[in-house]
Write a structure and sequence with these properties.
- The complex is a heterodimer of chains A (112) and B (115).
- With 112 residues, chain A is mostly beta strands.
- Chain A has strands at residues 5-7, 10-14, 19-24, 30-38, 45-50, 56-59, 62-67, 72-77, 86-94, 100-102, 106-111.
- In chain A, strands 2, 4, 5, 9, 10 and 11 form a six-stranded mixed sheet that branches. In chain A, strands 1-3-8-7-6 form a five-stranded antiparallel sheet, with no helix packed on it.
- In chain A, strand 9 (86-94) and strand 10 (100-102) form a beta hairpin.
- Chain A starts with a strand and ends with a strand.
- Chain B is globular.
- By secondary structure, chain B is mostly beta strands.
- In chain B, the strands form two sheets. In chain B, strands 2, 4, 5, 6, 9, 10 and 11 form a seven-stranded mixed sheet that branches. Chain B has a four-stranded antiparallel sheet with strand order 1-3-8-7, with no helix packed on it.
- Chain B has strands at 5-7, 10-13, 19-24, 31-37, 43-50, 53-56, 65-68, 75-79, 88-95, 105-106, 110-114.
- Classes of the chains: A mainly beta (112), B mainly beta (115).
- Chain A binds chain B through residues 31-32, 34, 36, 42-46, 49, 51, 89, 91, 93, 95-105, and chain B through 3-4, 31, 33, 35, 41-45, 48, 55-56, 58-59, 91, 98-109.
Chain lengths: 112, 115
Protein backbone atom coordinates (compact mmCIF):
# COMPACT_ATOMS: atom_id res chain seq x y z
CA UNK A 1 0.00 0.00 0.00
CA UNK A 2 1.34 3.40 -0.97
CA UNK A 3 1.32 6.17 1.60
CA UNK A 4 1.75 9.74 0.48
CA UNK A 5 2.33 12.17 3.32
CA UNK A 6 2.17 15.94 3.11
CA UNK A 7 3.32 18.51 5.62
CA UNK A 8 2.37 20.79 7.10
CA UNK A 9 -1.36 20.09 7.15
CA UNK A 10 -2.13 23.81 7.11
CA UNK A 11 -0.21 27.02 6.88
CA UNK A 12 -1.10 30.66 7.49
CA UNK A 13 1.25 33.27 6.03
CA UNK A 14 1.23 36.98 5.34
CA UNK A 15 1.07 38.38 1.83
CA UNK A 16 4.58 38.56 0.43
CA UNK A 17 5.96 35.67 2.49
CA UNK A 18 7.57 32.78 0.66
CA UNK A 19 6.58 29.30 1.71
CA UNK A 20 7.20 25.66 0.94
CA UNK A 21 5.46 22.35 1.50
CA UNK A 22 6.73 18.79 1.57
CA UNK A 23 5.39 15.66 -0.05
CA UNK A 24 6.84 12.27 0.94
CA UNK A 25 6.13 9.16 -1.09
CA UNK A 26 7.41 5.58 -1.37
CA UNK A 27 10.45 5.61 -3.63
CA UNK A 28 10.10 1.99 -4.76
CA UNK A 29 8.41 1.52 -8.15
CA UNK A 30 8.10 5.28 -8.53
CA UNK A 31 6.66 6.48 -11.82
CA UNK A 32 5.29 10.00 -11.50
CA UNK A 33 4.63 12.74 -8.96
CA UNK A 34 1.79 15.20 -9.51
CA UNK A 35 1.02 18.49 -7.77
CA UNK A 36 -2.50 19.92 -7.85
CA UNK A 37 -4.02 23.12 -6.57
CA UNK A 38 -7.56 22.92 -5.20
CA UNK A 39 -9.49 26.08 -4.53
CA UNK A 40 -12.69 26.00 -2.52
CA UNK A 41 -15.77 25.19 -4.63
CA UNK A 42 -13.63 24.37 -7.64
CA UNK A 43 -11.96 21.26 -9.08
CA UNK A 44 -8.33 20.31 -8.46
CA UNK A 45 -6.10 21.75 -11.19
CA UNK A 46 -2.74 20.33 -12.15
CA UNK A 47 0.36 22.37 -11.41
CA UNK A 48 3.14 19.95 -12.28
CA UNK A 49 3.74 16.37 -13.39
CA UNK A 50 7.27 15.24 -12.62
CA UNK A 51 8.93 11.96 -13.47
CA UNK A 52 12.73 12.37 -13.37
CA UNK A 53 14.94 12.43 -10.29
CA UNK A 54 16.30 15.94 -9.84
CA UNK A 55 13.49 17.46 -11.90
CA UNK A 56 12.68 21.09 -11.19
CA UNK A 57 9.62 22.75 -12.66
CA UNK A 58 8.39 26.32 -12.45
CA UNK A 59 5.15 28.11 -13.20
CA UNK A 60 5.23 31.80 -12.37
CA UNK A 61 5.94 32.14 -8.64
CA UNK A 62 5.43 28.45 -7.98
CA UNK A 63 8.15 25.85 -8.39
CA UNK A 64 8.67 22.22 -7.45
CA UNK A 65 11.57 19.83 -7.04
CA UNK A 66 11.69 16.05 -7.06
CA UNK A 67 13.94 13.50 -5.37
CA UNK A 68 12.84 10.02 -6.36
CA UNK A 69 15.69 8.22 -4.58
CA UNK A 70 14.72 9.48 -1.15
CA UNK A 71 11.03 9.88 -1.97
CA UNK A 72 10.22 13.54 -1.51
CA UNK A 73 9.10 16.59 -3.45
CA UNK A 74 9.00 20.22 -2.39
CA UNK A 75 6.57 22.87 -3.63
CA UNK A 76 7.70 26.49 -3.25
CA UNK A 77 5.63 29.64 -3.53
CA UNK A 78 7.59 32.86 -3.76
CA UNK A 79 5.95 36.06 -2.53
CA UNK A 80 2.58 34.53 -1.58
CA UNK A 81 -0.54 36.39 -2.66
CA UNK A 82 -4.11 36.05 -1.26
CA UNK A 83 -5.13 34.34 -4.51
CA UNK A 84 -2.64 31.56 -3.70
CA UNK A 85 -4.92 30.49 -0.84
CA UNK A 86 -5.94 26.92 -1.66
CA UNK A 87 -5.25 23.30 -0.76
CA UNK A 88 -2.17 21.90 -2.48
CA UNK A 89 -2.28 18.18 -3.18
CA UNK A 90 0.50 15.90 -4.24
CA UNK A 91 -0.08 12.46 -5.72
CA UNK A 92 2.29 9.62 -6.50
CA UNK A 93 1.91 6.90 -9.08
CA UNK A 94 3.85 3.65 -9.07
CA UNK A 95 4.58 1.84 -12.32
CA UNK A 96 2.61 2.87 -15.34
CA UNK A 97 -0.88 2.58 -13.92
CA UNK A 98 -3.67 5.02 -13.58
CA UNK A 99 -3.68 4.75 -9.82
CA UNK A 100 -2.54 8.04 -8.35
CA UNK A 101 -2.36 8.01 -4.57
CA UNK A 102 -3.07 11.43 -3.10
CA UNK A 103 -1.76 12.96 0.08
CA UNK A 104 -4.10 14.72 2.49
CA UNK A 105 -3.05 18.12 1.18
CA UNK A 106 -1.59 21.29 2.65
CA UNK A 107 -4.09 24.10 3.08
CA UNK A 108 -2.52 27.51 2.59
CA UNK A 109 -4.14 30.71 3.80
CA UNK A 110 -2.48 33.96 2.72
CA UNK A 111 -3.55 37.02 4.67
CA UNK A 112 -3.49 40.42 2.93
CA UNK B 1 -13.41 22.34 -25.17
CA UNK B 2 -15.65 21.82 -22.15
CA UNK B 3 -14.04 20.46 -19.04
CA UNK B 4 -14.93 17.25 -17.26
CA UNK B 5 -18.64 17.34 -16.55
CA UNK B 6 -20.15 15.55 -13.61
CA UNK B 7 -23.83 15.34 -12.81
CA UNK B 8 -25.68 15.69 -10.72
CA UNK B 9 -23.67 18.07 -8.56
CA UNK B 10 -25.71 17.13 -5.50
CA UNK B 11 -27.61 13.91 -4.94
CA UNK B 12 -29.73 12.92 -1.97
CA UNK B 13 -30.73 9.31 -1.58
CA UNK B 14 -32.53 7.39 1.13
CA UNK B 15 -30.86 4.33 2.59
CA UNK B 16 -31.40 1.35 0.31
CA UNK B 17 -31.85 3.36 -2.88
CA UNK B 18 -29.50 3.36 -5.83
CA UNK B 19 -27.22 6.26 -6.72
CA UNK B 20 -25.98 6.84 -10.28
CA UNK B 21 -23.18 9.33 -10.80
CA UNK B 22 -22.28 10.41 -14.31
CA UNK B 23 -19.02 11.70 -15.70
CA UNK B 24 -18.41 13.01 -19.20
CA UNK B 25 -14.67 13.24 -19.81
CA UNK B 26 -13.03 15.97 -21.81
CA UNK B 27 -13.19 15.53 -25.56
CA UNK B 28 -10.49 13.18 -26.76
CA UNK B 29 -9.84 11.68 -23.32
CA UNK B 30 -10.16 7.93 -23.13
CA UNK B 31 -8.91 7.46 -19.54
CA UNK B 32 -11.35 8.02 -16.67
CA UNK B 33 -10.70 7.81 -12.92
CA UNK B 34 -13.08 7.96 -10.00
CA UNK B 35 -12.04 9.20 -6.56
CA UNK B 36 -13.99 9.49 -3.34
CA UNK B 37 -13.51 12.09 -0.65
CA UNK B 38 -15.02 11.15 2.68
CA UNK B 39 -15.61 13.95 5.21
CA UNK B 40 -12.33 15.19 6.67
CA UNK B 41 -10.31 12.87 4.43
CA UNK B 42 -8.32 13.16 1.23
CA UNK B 43 -9.03 11.84 -2.25
CA UNK B 44 -9.12 8.05 -2.31
CA UNK B 45 -8.69 6.17 -5.59
CA UNK B 46 -11.62 3.98 -6.56
CA UNK B 47 -11.36 2.85 -10.18
CA UNK B 48 -9.56 3.50 -13.46
CA UNK B 49 -11.32 2.84 -16.76
CA UNK B 50 -10.54 3.11 -20.41
CA UNK B 51 -13.25 2.88 -23.03
CA UNK B 52 -15.28 -0.28 -22.28
CA UNK B 53 -12.55 -1.68 -19.99
CA UNK B 54 -11.92 -1.58 -16.25
CA UNK B 55 -8.15 -1.28 -15.85
CA UNK B 56 -7.84 -1.08 -12.07
CA UNK B 57 -10.69 -1.33 -9.58
CA UNK B 58 -8.59 -2.03 -6.53
CA UNK B 59 -10.08 0.94 -4.66
CA UNK B 60 -13.69 -0.06 -5.17
CA UNK B 61 -15.62 -1.67 -2.32
CA UNK B 62 -16.28 -5.28 -3.23
CA UNK B 63 -20.04 -5.03 -2.93
CA UNK B 64 -22.68 -2.56 -4.11
CA UNK B 65 -20.27 -0.44 -6.19
CA UNK B 66 -19.75 -0.74 -9.92
CA UNK B 67 -18.38 1.43 -12.69
CA UNK B 68 -18.53 1.45 -16.44
CA UNK B 69 -17.28 3.56 -19.32
CA UNK B 70 -19.22 2.50 -22.42
CA UNK B 71 -18.16 3.09 -25.98
CA UNK B 72 -20.77 5.83 -26.27
CA UNK B 73 -21.86 8.06 -23.43
CA UNK B 74 -20.55 9.05 -20.03
CA UNK B 75 -18.84 6.94 -17.41
CA UNK B 76 -21.23 5.81 -14.69
CA UNK B 77 -20.43 5.07 -11.06
CA UNK B 78 -23.29 3.09 -9.56
CA UNK B 79 -23.88 2.51 -5.88
CA UNK B 80 -26.62 0.07 -5.04
CA UNK B 81 -28.48 -0.03 -1.72
CA UNK B 82 -26.74 3.06 -0.40
CA UNK B 83 -25.87 3.36 3.28
CA UNK B 84 -25.04 6.44 5.34
CA UNK B 85 -21.33 5.67 5.08
CA UNK B 86 -21.52 6.22 1.31
CA UNK B 87 -22.12 9.94 1.90
CA UNK B 88 -19.12 11.62 0.33
CA UNK B 89 -17.96 13.73 -2.59
CA UNK B 90 -17.21 11.64 -5.67
CA UNK B 91 -14.78 13.11 -8.17
CA UNK B 92 -14.15 12.03 -11.70
CA UNK B 93 -11.01 12.86 -13.64
CA UNK B 94 -9.98 12.22 -17.22
CA UNK B 95 -6.76 12.27 -19.19
CA UNK B 96 -5.70 11.66 -22.79
CA UNK B 97 -2.88 9.35 -21.64
CA UNK B 98 -2.17 7.33 -18.52
CA UNK B 99 -1.39 9.43 -15.45
CA UNK B 100 2.24 8.43 -15.52
CA UNK B 101 2.56 10.53 -18.65
CA UNK B 102 0.27 13.50 -18.12
CA UNK B 103 -2.02 15.36 -15.77
CA UNK B 104 -5.57 14.56 -14.76
CA UNK B 105 -8.43 16.97 -15.38
CA UNK B 106 -11.02 16.88 -12.64
CA UNK B 107 -14.74 17.49 -12.62
CA UNK B 108 -16.40 19.49 -9.87
CA UNK B 109 -17.65 16.40 -8.11
CA UNK B 110 -20.97 14.94 -7.07
CA UNK B 111 -21.86 15.32 -3.42
CA UNK B 112 -23.88 12.33 -2.33
CA UNK B 113 -25.90 12.55 0.86
CA UNK B 114 -27.61 9.44 2.17
CA UNK B 115 -30.44 10.12 4.59
Amino acid sequence: ILNVEQSPQSLHVQEGDSTNFTCSFPSSNFYALHWYRWETAKSPEALFVMTLNGDEKKKGRISATLNTKEGYSYLYIKGSQPEDSATYLCASGSSNTGKLIFGQGTTLQVKP
Amino acid sequence: NAGVMQNPRHLVRRRGQEARLRCSPMKGHSHVYWYRQLPEEGLKFMVYLQKENIIDESGMPKERFSAEFPKEGPSILRIQQVVRGDSAAYFCASSPKSLGQGEAFFGQGTRLTVV
